[in-house]
Amino acid sequence: MKRAWSIVRTVALLALALGAILFALALVMDADLVRIADTVFANYDLAKVITAARDAWAGALAIFGL
Q1: What is the Cα–Cα distance from 9 to 47, expressed in whole angstroms?
Q2: Can you give 20-56 as a three-state secondary structure string?
């Protein structure tokens, strides 16, 4: 089980690092952050995503008894 969590942690850190690199590259290439934000908010209901993530986290904690 320890090895599985190590793999999950490694994949998560790699995904975060790749996201940070791509974001930095977008800034270097003079990306229009307002346009990107408008597109994200127009296509995704972020409040619904945040609520679903909180519910999932609460369910996981309940399953593991934490």
Answers
A1: 26
A2: HHHHHHHHHCCCCHHHHHHHHHHHCCHHHHHHHHHHH
- The 8-class DSSP code of residue 15 comes to H
d(C-alpha 38, C-alpha 23), whole Å: 16
Distance spanning both ends of the chain, measured CA to CA: 18
Against a cut of 0.85, is the pTM above it?
no
Summarize pLDDT for 36-52 with one digit per residue, the tens: 888 888 888 888 989 99
Largest CA distance in the chain: 47
